[in-house]
């Protein structure tokens, strides 16, 4: 079998935690902050974990060799 390539967009967007879960940056913070509630801006700070169903897709299809 030939080696599989990582998706270069996924390399920039996701990384794995020590326990193997997929970590991502919060969405919806690029522009238009004035019209968003302050609570949404606060809660979208930092990074978050993908849900298990989406993490399975990312690990299998986009980052095949990430351990």
Quick synopsis:
With 67 residues, the chain is of the alpha+beta class. Helices cover 34% and strands 15% of the residues.
Using brief descriptors, characterize the structure shown.
67 residues, alpha+beta, 3-stranded antiparallel beta sheet, 3 helices, 34% helix, elongated
Please describe the topology of this protein.
Elements: H1 8-13, E1 14-16, E2 22-25, H2 38-43, E3 47-49, H3 52-62
Antiparallel strand pairs: 1-2, 2-3
If you had to describe this structure to a student in words, what would you say it looks like?
This protein is α+β, with helices and mostly antiparallel strands and 67 residues long. The protein is elongated and about 50 Å long. The chain has three helices and three strands; from the N terminus they run αββαβα. 34% of the residues lie in helices and 15% in strands. A three-stranded antiparallel sheet has the order 1-2-3. The longest helix is centred in the last third of the chain and has 11 residues, at 52-62.
């Amino acid at each position: 079998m030939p080696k599989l390539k990582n998706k270069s967009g996924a390399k920039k967007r996701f990384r794995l935690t020590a326990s193997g879960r997929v970590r991502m940056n919060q969405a919806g913070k690029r522009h238009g902050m004035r019209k968003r509630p302050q609570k949404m801006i606060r809660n979208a700070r930092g990074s978050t974990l993908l849900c298990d169903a989406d993490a399975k897709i990312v690990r299998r299809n986009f980052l095949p060799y990430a351990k």
